[in-house]
Structures are given as structure tokens and as C-alpha cells.
Amino acid sequence: MHERRSGRAREELIKRLRHYQDWTGVRVIVVFDGKGTKIDISSDPHDVQIFYSRAGQTADDIIERLAGKYAKRFHLTVATSDYLEQQTASAAGAECISPEMLFALLDEQTKRRP
Questions:
Q1: At what angle do helices 59-70 and 83-92 cross, to 10 degrees?
Q2: CA distance 14 to 9
Q3: I want to staple 96 with a disulfide (CB 3.0 to 4.6 A). Which of 12, 47, 86, 91 is the partner?
């Protein structure tokens, strides 16, 4: 879906992550590459927190900063297919999973819901 309609794919991912957060109580943060002049954070206190990187910065930069800041204090799982990003997040103390593993978790959670 992402290749044809990236905006729709983002919305669907956020929707699925929101259901996962609501069902499990696990706090979810999603980071997307953006194009703005500053980091854009959109969220209400009980929703999935969404970050968009600013121009000249990648989502990976934000993920690395968050992992460096929070992985030692909280259980943090990073879903990425980028091997270098996995290595960096792991070095900070985060657990890493592939996007396929993330979607398997989301599918499993969906099957358990009444």
C-alpha cells in the first residue's frame, strides 16, 4: 500500500498501532520522515505519539535520539528493517524487531480482541 498511497498507508499503520496500544497498554511512538523546518509532534496525551522529522533530518536520527535517551530507563522496542539502525538502537539498549515481526504482533493482537 505504501508505494501507491503513502498517506493512506501511514493512516492505516497509525490506526493499527493505536488499537495495539489501547489493547495492550504499551505506549507507542511512531516516527516518520518529514519535510518541515522543525520536528513536528502530534498527539493527545492518550493517543499514539507521532513524530515527523524536520528537513535535513531523518526519522532514524529521531529514533536514535529517543533510544539513547529512554532505552536504559524503559523497555523500548524499535521496529526497523535498517540493519545499521538496529545496531545503533541495540547499542543504546533497545530491543529491535523487523517490520514483519511488528505486523505479526499487530495481527496476533487483532485476533485476540473480542
A1: 20
A2: 9
A3: 86
